[in-house]
Design a protein that fits this description.
Blueprint: H1 4-8, H2 16-22, H3 28-38, H4 41-63, H5 74-81, H6 105-141, E1 158-161, E2 188-191, E3 197-203, E4 208-214, E5 221-227, E6 231-237, E7 240-249, E8 264-278, E9 281-283, E10 285-288, E11 299-301, H7 304-309
Parallel strand pairs: 1-10, 3-10
Antiparallel strand pairs: 2-5, 3-6, 4-5, 4-7, 7-8, 8-9, 8-11
Amino acid sequence: MDDLYAILRISPSASASEIESRLSSVSAYEAARIRAILLVEARRKAYDKAHQAMMRTSILRYALRVTNTANWPQSLQQRWLGDPISKKDHSNSITGRKTRRYPSILKKVKEALKFLVALALFVLLGAAAINLVVKGCSKLLGVDQAPTESMYRNATPNVSTTSEPTSNAVAPPEDLSDTLPRPRSGTVFKRRGNGVAPFEVTVPEGLDSYIKVVNPETGAVVCSFYVRASDKKKIAVPIGKFHVYVNTGAFWYGTKKGFGPNSGRNRLIGDFEFYSDTPSRTMGHTIILGPVTNGNLSLEKVDQSRFDDME
């Protein structure tokens, strides 16, 4: 196959007008042949595919020092392909033939480093984008996210466990018409003030827990939230010294009635203090709502009206 672009001394990307203007530089026979191929769109597309394949083959043949065919002259090939053999080629000590000089190792190392840096940036940007999407979806769904780890850097929460169960098996009520769907685990119903201190609550399997953090001096609820059975949630509560009340059950009636009249209501005996001892460290609590062997928390039962009236 002849290199028609080389015969006209034009680029393979030349326009039809450029091809037409160069036809006068060749013989009438060549002009007619080239016009029939390069100036017909469908034929030129087919020719360009074959031409690209011949170009790749010619590069390989020239690199291997293999003589080209008469229809693809060496002079035309060098004119359009350039000389891929470096002028500083070194002769092979055995055959005496010139061999292609390979790129330096340093250049390959630089290219590899650039690729690794680009890959690392891509991974970091992808992780940041995923994090933003997750946070946005959580806000739209109304999910209360646990405080970030950086908020409680170097914090050492006090771990408390109960040695007795905070709940007992509850029979289903006769009328379930007043029950509501169970909230998502970690749902915060109320929070007064800035939630900055970590309060982590683990609820064992069995019954869900409705937890109220109460100011003992005013009786006001500073934070109330919901944790499902077999789950653990970390909630941000305000700074201060509080009492913790727990209502456990299986049938949810809302924040006013909790789990209904037949559910267990207890206060965890003792004060739970949340404070900041340094500007960068906030101290909180971690509790496990038992039963745990040798637990260090005690419980006292509270009346339904006392628990329900705390707001």
